[in-house]
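Quick start: read one record
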Amino acid sequence: MEVYRPAGFWNRVGARLIDGIIITVVIGLITLLIYGSFFTDGYTFLDFLGYAYLIIVPVVWYGYTIGRKIAGNRIVRMDGRKVGFGTMLLREVVSTIVYVITLGFGAIASLFMIGVRDDKRAIHDFIAKTYVTHAPPEQKENEAAAK
């Protein structure tokens, strides 16, 4: 399986920062409406909205989130197909569990992997069999058909 036009470290960080800001503002506004303060103590069902966003939006939007669309990258499976719910659950939830179990060392290793590896794949990409690309959904298919 070939990685096509992989997105680099800073591009991926930028996309995640934009998504983090969006998630924080939306959840903060919802908690303000419900509880009367921008954030509440402890976890509520609203804390799962961030994960829902990171899992559902790429499934229905060809691997993009709002942050990824702005940064110009998207998540795809190694076989080139668009991601599904199972793939995104592995990528977001299972990888988070791995990063917690390794006390954050797995996350640090992933950052180095994105920066150093030619294919720019991190631990969560290997878990979910995905990669992050600059190619829009139709570009790889068009170039493959032209060969």
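The longest strand covers residues 74-77.
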